Amino acid sequence: MIAIGIDLGTSFIKVSAYDTVAAVCVAAAQYPEKECGIVSREPNWAEQSPADWWHHVKQAILLLHAQNKYDPAAIGAIGIAYQMHGLVCLDEHNQVLRDSIIWCDSRAVEIGNQAMNAIGEDYCLNHLLNAPGNFTASKLAWVKKNEPELFAKIKTILLPGDFIAYQLTGKLSTTVSALTEAVCWDFKTNTVSEKLMDYFGFDASIIPEIKDNFEIHGNLLDTVAKELGLPAGIPVSYKAGDQPNNAFSLNVMKEGEMAATAGTSGVIYAVTEKLFHDVQSRVNTFAHVNHLAANHSLGVLMCINGTGILYKYIRSILGKNLSYAELNELAAAVPVGSEGLLMLPFGNGAERILGNRTVGSHLLNLNFNIHTPSHIVRAALEGIAFAFQYGLNIMRENGIQLSVVKAPRANLFLSEVFIDAFVNTTGLTLELYEADGSIGAAKGACAGVFMSEKKEPPLLAANAVRVIHPDKQNLYDDHYNNWETELKKKLQ
User: Fold this and answer.
1) Hey, CA dihedral for 466, 439, 249, 455, is it positive or negative?
2) For a Cys-Cys bond, which of 30, 116, 322, 435 suits 14, CB 3.0-4.6 Å?
3) Res 320 pLDDT > 90
């Protein structure tokens, strides 16, 4: 069987065809050619069009077929991974009412803070495991407050992956995992939080049918199958947010295991069986893909909004004719510490690790007689690695044991300078794998088909292609300490 995996990212849609018998990816494609834009009509706002997502998914699948590396008739399942925390609003005809307010949008921070105070910190942290913050439920509350006429038309809300599944199948559904990332799920009662819904004035009917991650979420519509050259009736058998899916793709499924990504945002995702919360909600806890009411499996997520997006910005400033590989070569031309140049990478909205504060990105200690573009590139990569260390220290404060982290060999983990800075600043051993979100989604689709038939899914784990141990932490310690001192000044 061939499984198709769809990864709905912020910058691109990527799709992969995965041969579940040979356990290999046989083809991959992404769309569009240029990175997707983010609409920011006000400072710290971030929106994207769900219609654009769907168009891009279809184009990516057609590009995948055009490679002629598999028989579309052999496709037996579809899985979806998606950018987390986004809000999609549908009317009574299941038409989209507005652009999606996506994960890095900060407009609802104060609404979330007010909800925390009104509902009670004890309830939020012990039942929701998070402050409402600027997550999906708070974003919907912003719509209710600021766009009341539009809010009155809302019949159903979806997360981004739920929307793509609906377009494929015509069926509306979500998952417990998705509702935890929306921060409207009560872990103690194992239901949608009545307390939060009542406070915001949301009718429970706006939540669609709730399914497991590994379950049949619907079957491919005949019209969509014909348009995309796929067999009609293929099951969509897996949906998960990008970070739980990344962990699944790396076989990070048990207590103490940890995954990382460094794409548009940077994430550390540690699995625990405990109903964990950080009292300051600087790191967040969501249901993992294998979470059950009777058998907890949770992902503690530390997120940095400004990682790959900072590197993209640096590239645009220095000249778009430069490839990312050439940027990495520039960075390697200067020594560790960038000769005193420091960069804070927090230019993509409110940062949870900073208490939902918007600090902005800053280039510090710039000397016109010393520093070159190479220094700027290296300072950006080191600044991102330092931000990881800052967030990891929050996880350590909360008793999460850290030693080894798994990551896909992709995005910033293709940069030797970043790898060196990451490993030697954090003190973690890094294992790199040939994995990505779309392959993880395809593997999830395969597992979903087997589990829906009450069968044991095949082993989908992979071996590390590279292992990097910290060996020169002393070179980075002083530079990190200087960086942290500058960050604390900004926070004060």
Assistant:
1) negative
2) 30
3) no
> Which residue reads 């207590």 in tokens?
255
E strand spans, 181-233:
185-186, 191-192, 209-211
Nearest residue to 248 via CA among 466, 408, 366: 408
CATH superfamily of 303-434+466-491: ATPase, nucleotide binding domain (3.30.420.40)
Distances (CA, A) of 271 to 258, 259, 276, 399, 479: 6, 9, 10, 13, 30
Name which of 169, 187, 178 is nearest 127 in CA terms: 187
pLDDT exceeds 90 at position 462: no
User: Is the confidence at residue 460, as pLDDT, over 70?
Assistant: no
Which DSSP string corresponds to 379-447?
Answer: HHHHHHHHHHHHHHHHHHHTT---SEEEEES-GGGG-HHHHHHHHHHH--EEEEES--HHHHHHHHHHH
Longest distance between any two alpha carbons in the chain, whole Å: 67
C-beta of residue 178 within 8 angstroms of C-beta of residue 164: no
CA atoms of 297 and 288, how far apart (whole Å): 6
In degrees, rounded to 5, the angle at the alpha carbon of residue 32 between the alpha carbons of residues 30 and 35 is 105
Q: pTM for the whole thing?
A: 0.92
What SS3 class is residue 468?
strand
Which option is the CATH number for 2-250: 1.10.3720.10, 3.30.420.40, 3.90.79.10, 3.90.550.10?
3.30.420.40
